[in-house]
Amino acid sequence: MATSDSRDVVIEATPAEILDVIADVESAPQWSSQHQGAEVLDRDADGRPGKVRLKLKTMGISDEQVVRYTWADDRVSWKLLESSQLKTQSASYTLTPDGDKTKVRFEITVDPAVPIPGFVLKRAMKGGLEAATDGLRKQVMKVKKR
């Protein structure tokens, strides 16, 4: 059964600065505890990741996924192509400029391949949402200070 959730965060950066951090998928393990590794398999015409292989671990469950990214000026999304643990997954970041800050909305829908108790799935989703928002904010601020 598919489960969806979302979370908002405000980051003191431009949409372009935030998208640059997201596009650096190989660095995701530095700021997302769920990411164990990432490999770009192909890139789009602008050099951003297209097809990506991810190694993830959530709540003790390991998964290797292949996802396809789609990029826009104010949004990035991805859809699951292959996974051993999920039937489907789609996720996106939508960026709304607000002065010198950006409101970032992260949305995700997952459909596990095997039944997972509701409380375990909720905890896994919460951890993913925190990494995708708070972890992203911390990484953007770290990159901006360089």
TrEMBL record:
- Top-level taxon in the UniProt lineage: Bacteria
Mind telling me which Pfam families this protein's record contains? Polyketide_cyc2
Q: Which InterPro entries match?
A: Polyketide_cyclase/dehydratase, START-like_dom_sf
**Which regions form coiled coils?**
none
What protein name does the entry list?
Cyclase
> Which CDD domains does UniProt cross-reference here?
SRPBCC_2
